[in-house]
From TrEMBL:
Membrane topology: Multi-pass membrane protein
Main location: membrane
TM spans (from-to): 6-35, 77-97, 104-124, 136-165, 177-196, 202-220, 232-252
Protein name: Probable membrane transporter protein
One Gene Ontology cellular component: plasma membrane
Source species, domain of life: Bacteria
Pfam families: TauE (PF01925)
Record carries keyword Repeat: no
Entry's localization field: Cell membrane; Membrane
Homology family: Belongs to the 4-toluene sulfonate uptake permease (TSUP) (TC 2.A.102) family.
Keywords associated with the record: Cell membrane, Membrane, Transmembrane, Transmembrane helix
PANTHER family documented for this protein: MEMBRANE TRANSPORTER PROTEIN MJ0441-RELATED (PTHR43701), MEMBRANE TRANSPORTER PROTEIN-RELATED (PTHR43701:SF5)
Length: 256
């Protein structure tokens, strides 16, 4: 590979680490770099992408935990459901193409966009002193979230925040903190499975992971300390969803 690809990979990983820690969809950047610039096949790009997901999960979770924004014990049900769902999702990812799902996915993102814009105050400092999901609602929702994360990962953060903030009434920053740790927990196992199947390019994934490691920590540290971090996280979330819609519908290809 040319030297500049390494620079782009690290820089792209850093941006993806920030985006994933505060909202989601950073994998759109890393998967593009892995497949389009590094020339990896789709399934190996998917597996190699998990190296960076684990790296940013470690640094981001550490940043949130160090600043008192990550409480693990009170989220055991959520973590367990996502973990089990992810194992099912990675099994499907190893055996089924996700191309047909992407067709449905782009229309789903339009719905997500409108949900974000309707009553935006719901996303800013909702009451979370007793943030709690009904188990009958939480179990199927987080099993489905985990399945999606194990299957394709891209956009997992956005869907996770939709459920924890709008349904569970979590504060946006606290939701991001538990989101990062949840993804880290199942991604370690998912990465091991992809590696066992020979679908991880550790060199390519490791280069991007270096940037994601830095980006995850910087974003978690910022979100934990900055008083208006929830506002910026919300703005970033809306921006990322808009850009994702443009990309999925080929707007950028048309313009450039």
């Amino acid at each position: 590979m040319e030297w500049y690809i390494y620079v782009i990979a690290v820089a792209g990983g850093l941006v993806a680490g920030v985006i994933n820690t505060l909202s989601g969809f950073g994998s759109a950047i890393t998967l593009t770099i892995l497949s389009e610039m590094m020339g990896l096949p789709g399934n190996i790009s998917n597996g190699s992408n998990r190296v960076g997901v684990v790296a940013q999960g470690i640094s981001g979770s550490f940043g949130f935990y160090k600043n008192g924004r990550l409480e693990i014990k009170k989220h055991r049900l959520l973590l367990t459901c996502c973990f089990i769902g992810a194992l099912l999702g990675v099994y499907v990812a190893l055996n089924v193409s996700n191309e047909q799902f992407k067709t449905v996915f782009k229309y789903l993102m339009i719905a997500v966009f409108f949900v974000l814009l309707i009553k935006p105050k719901r996303w800013l400092n909702p009451p979370n002193a007793e943030a709690k999901l009904n188990p009958w609602i939480a179990i199927p929702l987080f099993l489905a979230l985990g399945f999606y994360g194990g299957f394709i990962q891209m956009g997992m953060g956005v869907f996770f925040l939709l459920i924890t903030v709008l349904v569970g009434k979590y504060n946006l920053i606290d939701a991001n903190a538990i989101k990062g740790f949840t993804v880290l927990l199942y991604s370690v196992v998912v990465l091991a499975i992809f590696h066992y199947k020979g679908l991880v390019d550790w060199k390519a994934g490791g280069i991007i992971a270096l940037g994601q490691l830095i980006g995850g920590y910087l974003a978690a540290n910022f979100a934990s300390k900055f008083p208006k971090a929830d506002i910026w996280a919300y703005r970033l979330l809306v921006t990322i969803v808009i850009l994702a819609i443009f990309k999925l519908f080929g707007v950028f290809d048309y313009l450039f």
